[in-house]
Amino acid sequence: MMIKPYIQLLRPRHYLKNALIFLPLIFSGLLLNSHALASSVAAFAAFSLLASTVYIINDLRDKELDKLHPKKKFRPLASGAVSTPAAITMVVLLLVLVAVFQYLANFSVIGFGLLGFYLLINVLYSFGLKNIPIVDIAILSLGFVIRVFYGADAIDVDVSNWLYLAVLASSFYLGLGKRRNEIKGLGTSTRKVNRHYTQEFLDKNMYVCLGLTIVYYSLWAIDPNQPVKLMFLTVPVVIAIVMTYSLAVESAESDGDPVNVLMSSRPLIGLVLLYGALMTGLVYLQP
Fold first, then answer.
1. What is the CA radius of gyration of the chain?
2. Domain ranges of the chain
3. Residues 159-177: pLDDT tens digits?
4. Could you tell me what percent of the chain has a pLDDT over 90?
5. Superfamily per CATH, domain 1-159
6. Rounded to 5 degrees, what angle do the CA atoms 199, 123, 72 make?
7. Phi and psi at residue 183, in whole multiples of 5°?
8. What separation in angstroms does the CA of 267 have from each of 43, 48, 77, 112, 135?
9. No. of H helices and E strands in the chain?
């Protein structure tokens, strides 16, 4: 049996999105706490496997449509490399593993609730909500917000209101950018909901959300309750990151997928690493 198609079905490349789970760990100053770190790693594993479950369910639902897509036709289910019964079996096994890792992360009703809510909205997305304009982008955006709150629950810390709003606005920006480039590159034939959007509409709302992201992040950085007093120093780096991301999204080669945009831009990767280093230094090296 070929293992590669089954690994591809899990889409481990997209686990990069789940790095948001570690934001509460880093920002709270608990990165060096072994118990908190272990809980966050287990939470990352649980959410990654749950995300893979969602991807498989979506691929099962869209198998016939994916066969018409120039890139998606090579996916394991659409190409026939993985059978439908095998994919369903994987879904069951993955859900069991999700429960195990969630138990290891933090046996919390809230944590299980967030995982269940993420699964529910994404199943509903796969079975029809993805065809409703705005709702489809809202669900994609909500997924990023859930990741942050799930990471916070794993280590029992709170999420700042300003940080929540910054993540929400940036998530809408990413979702709008993905739809924008789908229309620009492939038109409206491969996704029904794109028939309701225009590139002009998506452009305008993308940059509203981009502006809100910078504003909300800046307010979080200068919040009087912010324990790291020099956090405002990260604001220029965040502005540079969103500008570089915007430039990459608007390039002719980009498909708008956040992971692909990040991994295809060396300047963007460099800025993200710079932000990580600066943030770590401010949080853990402050006097």
1. 19
2. 1-159, 160-287
3. 999 999 999 999 999 999 8
4. 58
5. UbiA prenyltransferase (1.10.357.140)
6. 55
7. -65, -45
8. 30, 26, 35, 37, 32
9. 13, 0
